[in-house]
Design brief:
The chain is built from 15 helices and 17 strands. It has 438 residues and is an alpha/beta fold. The chain folds into two domains: 18-51 and 324-433, Aspartate Aminotransferase, domain 1 (Alpha-Beta Complex), CATH 3.90.1150; 56-321, Type I PLP-dependent aspartate aminotransferase-like (Major domain) (Aspartate Aminotransferase, domain 2, 3-Layer(aba) Sandwich). A seven-stranded mixed β-sheet has the order 4-10-9-8-7-5-6, sandwiched between helices. The protein has a four-stranded antiparallel β-sheet with strand order 13-14-17-16. Helix 4 (109-124) runs parallel beside helix 5 (155-164).
Length: 438
């Protein structure tokens, strides 16, 4: 199976089932809530996931027993806190197939992507010395993104192009939202210095052909930057097998706390990049005239770090590993197929994204003829069903699909088939409620 489409299809994978999911759901107290008199059905994990009790208990335990500044003290609490912090890095880096020195802690994926672009801008301004010149951009250089991108993997590149004089180009999508791979080879040229693209569309749930795009970038010597926000929580991901140079991901989408994310980068690249934030804890020596910086990852971790959040994220990763990412992916594929098939059968519903059979995670974006997505979302919320409405921080993609906004239902390992059936039954009632003819 190629790294581009890691959805599990092997018969030997023991898929999760509703009985096991019901046991897992007991680990998520928020799922016991009622919303507007109905049991909560949470189908907005693409925005943020719910957390098992062990995650926030881990953060509480850290503060109660180990709270101290890391890398800064010789007393016992500081040593213990540092051990917890670096063990979290080991756990999470192993989860994505990276080495420990290749994982930089950030506040979220947006910061991780901005870290790259600001570092490249600093290199373009002459900072970082000889080693950083490989990241310098200027007139005549090109940055390539795709029309699928979340704003977090588009606007930072727009800003970098504006600061350096480089040209920003993009690979378009077709009328179904599939990347125009037939045009990619023309767009990715000898002038391309960076290719940044999403692993899984946050709107469509479609899985990008990573290996094909990486090969095109390698052919012209371009660096590759992968947005892994929607893949790391839902699919088995190995950055070495994907062969990307950088990958950003966010903890709160993978059962972890808010305020923590990560940037993977090849060690030789991170060590050559000039830092983004500067201050304490990321230096080797400082005079009144200049400073020398530590190797990665610490050269990018200035100031007081996200210690409890890193510990919480490592706990979330351990939870996912115990369940098994192959099994998580297989279950969500099952739920996604049930959801997409059911939505396509409802009159007046347009399902956005690739045709049936394309590789997708358990995400379903749709529109209802004659009803605004915000009204659809409020109608579903009245029945206790939480979904996302709007442009999902992907306005260019929505424009390419001919809509301003959509309703998006997104699943995770705590959703059941009954959740999907409740969604389908509710969506089937939308047109009648708003008096729209089908």
């Amino acid at each position: 199976m190629s790294s581009a489409s890691p959805q599990p299809q092997d018969a030997h994978i023991e898929r999760l089932d509703d009985l096991e999911i019901s046991r897992l759901r007991a680990d998520f107290p928020i799922l016991e809530r009622s919303i507007n008199g109905s049991a909560l059905i949470y189908l907005d994990s693409g925005a943020t996931s719910q957390k098992p009790s062990c995650v926030y208990e881990a953060e509480q335990h850290y503060y109660e027993s180990f709270n101290a500044a890391v890398h800064r003290g010789a007393h016992s609490l500081a040593v213990e806190a540092t051990d917890i912090f670096e063990q979290a890095r080991s756990t999470v880096s192993n989860f994505i197939g990276a080495n420990e020195n290749e994982l930089v802690w950030t506040s979220n994926a947006t910061e991780a992507l901005n870290l790259i672009t600001y570092s490249f801008a600093n290199a373009s301004a002459g900072l970082g010395g000889e080693a950083a010149k490989r990241f310098a951009l200027g007139e005549g250089d090109e940055i390539v993104v795709t029309e699928l991108e979340h704003h977090a993997n588009l606007i930072p590149w727009q800003e970098l192009a504006a600061r350096t004089g480089a040209t920003l180009k993009y690979i378009p999508v077709d009328e179904h939202g599939a990347l125009r791979m037939d045009l990619a080879e023309q767009i990715i040229s000898a002038r391309t210095r960076v290719l940044a693209f999403t692993h899984v569309s946050n709107v469509l749930g479609s899985i990008t052909d990573v290996s094909a795009l990486v090969a095109l970038a390698r052919n012209v010597g371009a660096l590759t930057v992968l947005d892994g926000c929607q893949s790391v929580p839902h699919l088995p991901v190995d950055v070495k097998k994907l062969d990307v140079d950088f990958m950003a991901f966010s903890g709160h989408k993978m059962l972890g706390p808010t305020g923590i994310g990560g940037l993977y980068g090849r060690s030789e690249l991170l060590d050559a990049m000039p830092p983004f934030l500067t201050g304490g804890s990321m230096i080797t020596s400082v005079t009144m005239e200049k400073a020398e910086f530590l190797p990665a990852p610490m050269r990018f971790e200035a100031g007081t770090q996200r210690i409890s959040q890193a510990h919480g994220l490592a706990t979330a990763v351990s939870y996912l590993e115990e369940v098994g990412m192959d099994r998580v992916a297989a279950w969500e594929e099952h739920l996604g197929e049930r959801m997409l098939t059911g939505l396509r059968q409802i009159p007046g519903i347009r399902v956005l994204g690739p045709e049936a059979g394309a590789a997708r995670i358990g995400t379903a974006p749709f529109t209802v003829d004659g009803v605004h997505p915000h009204d659809v979302g409020q109608f579903l919320d009245a029945r206790g069903i939480a979904v996302r409405v709007g442009h999902h921080c992907a306005q260019p993609l929505h424009r390419a699909l001919g809509v301003n906004a959509s309703t998006r239902a997104s699943t995770y390992l705590y959703n059941t088939t009954s959740d999907i059936d409740a969604l389908l039954n509710a969506v089937a009632d939308v047109c009648g409620y708003f008096g729209v003819s089908k």
